[in-house]
Structures are given as structure tokens and as C-alpha cells.
Amino acid sequence: MSTPILVTGAAGFIGYHTAERLLVRGNQVVGLDNLNPYYDPALKEARLARLQARSGFSFRRVELADREAVEAVFEGDRPEVVIHLAAQAGVRYSLTNPHAYAHSNLTGFLHILEGCRRHQVRHLVYASTSSVYGANTGMPFSERHGVNHPLTLYAATKRANELMAHSYSHLYGIPMSGLRFFTVYGPWGRPDMALFLFTKAILEGRPIDVFNEGRMRRDFTYVDDLVEGVIRVADRPPKGDPAWDGNAPDPSRSAAPWRIYNIGNSQPTDLFRYIEVLEECLGRKAERRLLPMQPGDVPATWADVSLLDEAVGYRPATTIEEGVAKFVAWYREYYGVPEWIPPGDAGQGFEY
Questions:
Q1: For this structure, is 154 an active site residue?
Q2: How open is the CA angle 264-269-274, to the nearest 5 degrees?
Q3: What pTM value is reported for the model?
């Protein structure tokens, strides 16, 4: 395909995997990222180097809040499809650095919307989050539920993105799809997320912090499954729903060409089970430091993915046993961590 797909956040965890999958199937990809130091830029640069080694990839180092720079990318590269995955992530970080979220997630998203409007983009797909469900407790979380009680600024900015996208879709007829991601994990993952933190601590012989004393359930979603959903949605721009009724509005759709989809494994797992699987993969037990619930956190998430299945014929299905094993294998290789042979086995100690 000669017309490129613009992937923002291409050096990030999900952006990297999305760009790589698109390149493998033959798309031209323009990757945009600012390589900020929210976490170790070396990991972002390593992901980027892998993409730059592939044919069909070009990179633009751009700050989303830089209006002129974002406009120059749209003007110069003329993408027909935009997969917008760049954002200031992290629930807890938003408690101490709120301005970073307004800067990237609100102002930056507006610049993406303006680029789509000015250059007749055929479809904008953008990342939202399960965090928008906030104070909701009805399970599983459905796109048809109201989501007007966010518990963190991060969640509020992502909900704002959904509403901003709807307004542009309504005003200018641009197809837009918002994707609510549920606890994504896998190789090349973010160092601020639980699996990465747990793995590093266990291998270093340090205790792991287990919040709400472990009484947590998460809909852990393996990154390859998530990316499959992202790309399937990107290939199918939504149309306006002529049956949409303003007297009984369905929050998941609209008379405008705008949709919201959950992407999750739809198999919530107890946090202690997640840790047990990690211990099995590492061959080591974790020392668990049980702590209270953190501000803005929720005890459980669970995705209803029936609308995604209905729209694109896909449901994530990778088990945590498969997914965690793949993450651990990547972690060992990337950081050069040898396998551990328990005392008493032949060749005691580390196996090189």
C-alpha cells in the first residue's frame, strides 16, 4: 500500500507492536513519538531501532502538543488512516504530574483531530482505557454503560478524548473508533506496569508491592491479541447508525460514524494467581508486601467484548500462562538474565 498509516506513540509498548504488525503485512508506516523520559528512553529507542530496520517504516520525532510539528506530519505524509496510541499513560503518575496529561492527552489529541479534519483522513482509531469505567461496579464492563464518574485525571482525559472525537465525527463526518484497553502486558512492555515491576523485583530478590492486600482482579490482555483487535478495527471504518435514538442514547455508538469498543481478554484473573504464574515462569517465589488500595485504583476490571466480536469477528484469547511465559522469555533475553536452576539440580546456580 502506497498511502502510509500514521501510528503515534510508535516507540511505545502498544505502538511498537502495532507498527510492527502493520509492516509485516505490507503497510507503509509513519511512526510518530517524542521519546520522552516518562520511563527509560533506552527501551523506547530499542523498539524504534527494530522498526527502523524494517522496510516501509519512517520516523518523525514530534511532540504532540507542538501544533505546527503535528500539522507538518499530516501535510508531508498524507496518511489516510491514523492509529493514535501516543499519550501520557499511568494512573498513579497523574496524581503527581497532572499537567503532563493536559499537555499530551488533551492538547495533543486536539492537534490529531485537527490534522484529521484538515487532511480528510479516512479513519481515526485512538486508544482509550478501561479506567474510564471509574466508579462503575457492574460487571462485565460494557460500552453501553455510562462512564461519567472517572476516578483519576488520566481516566478523565481519556473520556474527554472519546467526547472530543465524537464532536469532530459529528461535525465533519470523519469515521472515528475509540478502543478501551484492558491491562495490556507482554514482551517489550512498560517498566511502570505490574508484570515488569514484579519480574524485576523477584529476580533482584526484593519484595513486590501488592496493593489492596491482593484483593484485585484484572482483565489481563496479551499485547498480540490487543493489536489484532486494533488493526481489525482500523480496517473497518464505522458508519453512522440511522437507528440511534437521542431519546434513549446508546453510549457505544452514534448517528455519526463513531464507535467505542472494549478490547480485553474477558477473563478476569485474581492478582495472586497472576503472581503465581509469574513465579512458576521465573522458578522463584516472590516476597509479597501487602499494602492498602492506592488512590484512584479499582478492585476489579472485566471487559464485555461482544461489540468488538460483532463488529470485526474477534475476541482476545491468550491465557495468562502463555502470555506471562512469553514476557519472561523476552525479559531474560533483553536484559541478559540467565535461567535459574534450583539448588540440588545438576549444575547448581545460573545456567548460561
A1: yes
A2: 110
A3: 0.94
